[in-house]
Amino acid sequence: MRAAAAAKYVAFARVATALARRDRGELYGRMLFFAVILGVFSSLWRAVAEAGMPIAADPKLLVWYLATTEWIILSAPPVHTDVQESIRRGDVVCRIGRPVSYVGAAFAEALGLLAVRAPLLAATAWACAFAFTGWIPSLTSLAWTLPFGFAAAALITAMYLWIGLLAFWLEDVSPVFWVVQKLLFVFGGLMLPIELYPRAMQVAAAWTPFPAMLAGPASFVLRQSGAGWLMLALEQSAWGGAAALAVWWAFRRASATLTINGG
Amino acid sequence: MRERSNHLAFVSALLATNLKAAVALRGAFVIQVVFMMLNNLTFFVFWWALMRRVPELRGWRLGDIQVLFGIVAAGFGLTVTLAGGVRHLSRFIDDGELDTLLAQPQPVLLHALGLRLQASGFGDMLSGIAFIASSGQVSWRAAPVVLLAIAASALVILACGILFHSLTFWLGNVDTVARQLWELLITFALYPEPLFGGGLRLVLFTLLPAGFVGYVPARLAQRPTAALVVLTIAAASAYLLFAAAVFERGVKRYASGSRFGVHG
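Structure tokens for the assembled complex are given below, as produced in the milestone run.
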């Protein structure tokens, strides 16, 4: 019974994977963006090194750190836009009637997209980071970033899904997305390791899910080892549970108050 | 002369209608403006955190970066507020939505650009001006030059948007690519010029003119000279005229979408 239910969601993921393989324009765009942003930052870190590096980290390590955080964030599909459109157009009503969970199907589709994007963007990230630094971190640390990076991208996707569901109450969820995304950039340590922030911000970041999404997986590269993996696994599991609860609660509240007009 | 004043009246009416539509949902409008300001402020935290530790990067201090960021944010905000349709040009072209505009007595490009207003653009403009004002690099007496710099930046952003999206006339649906090229332009414009060297710098002043979106207008705002004024105006005009010419050429190739629709 459970296997049959799971098979439905696997089918959603497979369809999304097939579509993503066909429609590769956006993915190529992301790869180009990746190369550009890493190029910009490798120049920036060289300039920072000239001015006196503020932390005890090699500029090459910081480029690899950024490659990892960017890989995670660019791999997560912006599922909130599809969910918002589905709610705005009223398509959600047709989907609710299906014998599958609407949010479960949306998340499965997003994971299908993630399965196509993540490997290609990881290859791009590593190739670009190598091209800009001429150096590769320890293979052990890279091996640790892969599963935790993928889990982090799935966690970000769940957060985007929750933002999309806010379209049941808000006219446009973009402003919420922008702010959450920028909080993710800052408290997650997208461009700078969190250790570079003032102490108060580091403490504030520790209370948010964002470090588990970006800095956590990317720190394996900075540390050059898999140290701290158990703590990160626990954090990601806890925040994953919280995200699942938030998505379930939001959709339940929206379904209870949904008014369907027309036929 | 009369035709020009007609166009001006048309543009004013289009803007007024768009503004009324945006403000009609007052709550959503305010949320978009405020959240965009927060968004820009959050983005700047990176520079603030970095430059607390490294006060100078190849001659650039935090105040210089604030002016650069402010000019680009305000220029982008001005573009998507007054000509928000530029972000949808590819779709208009590919979906045949230009049909209804071609049948009307107003310039197609002007009409298409004015079809959408992005409320968040006001947030960009306000935060951009706040960044410039709080940078300590620009005096109030320089306000006219700052406005000129913002306008020039906006025109180059607009011109690039028109150019990238007009590729649809020749290449089919390139909406995603055009949007990403536009994002790249803004991304490059937000970082200090000395970070880029050699061939890339040449690209940033020609093919992907981030130099005329950020660095040159920012320098004009900080240290205005007659030569910079001329250069800024000339670059903005040249890019805009070139973009408009490319669009016009594309319209000649445009194949109707045979779509029935109504435009307000």
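The two ends of chain A are 33 Å apart (CA to CA). The CA atoms of residues 38 and 67 of chain A lie 7 Å apart. Further analysis is deferred to the final report.
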